[in-house]
Every structure is written in structure tokens, then in C-alpha cells.
Amino acid sequence: MSALRPGDITDDMIQAMDTAKRQGLQKDLRALAANIRADAEGRYDSAEPGWRAGVEWTLLWIENTAAQLTEGTPGAGAGGWGQGVSPE
After folding, report:
1. Per-residue burial over 19-29, b = 16 or more CB atoms within 10 Å of its CB, e = otherwise
2. Is pLDDT at 24 greater than 90 in this prediction?
3. 65: how many CB neighbours lie within 10 A of its CB?
4. How far apart are CA 82 and CA 63, in angstroms?
5. How many CA atoms, within 13 angstroms, populate the side-chain half-sphere of residue 1?
6. H/E/C letters for each residue in the chain?
7. Does residue 69 contact residue 77 with C-beta atoms inside 8 Å?
8. What per-residue confidence (pLDDT) applies to 72?
9. Which of 42, 46, 48, 60 is deepest in the core (most CB within 10 A)?
10. Which residues contact 40 (CB under 8 A, 6 or more apart)?
11. How many Cα neighbours within 13 Å face the side chain of 42?
């Protein structure tokens, strides 16, 4: 197989690579949320009142961030961090 030259890499190839990266990060974020949810189960009863709200907010933020990665909306991805859910 011959080596790729800069002109050989098409916009479609770059877009496919970006999509694959976003899907991988989305999968990792959802796995993180599942792990947090599993670790938090059973701790709600003995936790401080604000702890449960903090866990729920964190899970919502993670899910919203993961969803933005594949929505194709402006600001999705690196520029989209922090958008979506507000703690207020």
C-alpha cells in the first residue's frame, strides 16, 4: 500500500475521523455516568441532603454533554463544554 499524501485525505475522511472520536468520547462519558450511578445507589439514604442533588446534576450534565457530541449542533464537541445544563 502506498503512503498517503496530504491531498489524499479528503474532507469526508476528516469528518469520519471526527465523528468516530465524538462517538468514542460519547461512549466513555455514558460509561462514566453508569459507573457513578451504580456507585451512588444505596448511598442516598445516608448522604447529606445536597449530595443526591449533586449526583443527579452531574449525571444530567454528563448525559447532556454526551448528547451534544453527536447532535451536529454548533458548539458541540470541544467548544460545547459547559453548555446545556446549569447548576442554578
Report:
1. eeebeebbeeb
2. yes
3. 21
4. 12
5. 3
6. CCCCCHHHCCHHHHHHHHHHHHHHHHHHHHHHHHHHHHHHCCCCCCCCHHHHHHHHHHHHHHHHHHHHHHHCCCCCHHHHCCCCCCCC
7. yes
8. 63
9. 60
10. 52, 55
11. 2
Alpha-carbon distances, residue 34 vs 6, 11, 45, 55, 78 (angstroms): 40, 35, 19, 12, 22
- The band of 5, judged by pLDDT with boundaries at 50, 70 and 90, is confident
pLDDT for 74 equals 43
Match 448528547 to its residue by C-alpha cell.
67
| Cα–Cα distance for residue pair 27/25, rounded to 1 Å | 5
Is the pTM higher than 0.70? The answer reads: no
The mean pLDDT of 37-43, rounded to a whole number, is: 82
| Spatial separation of the C-alpha atoms in residues 14 and 47, rounded to whole Å | 47
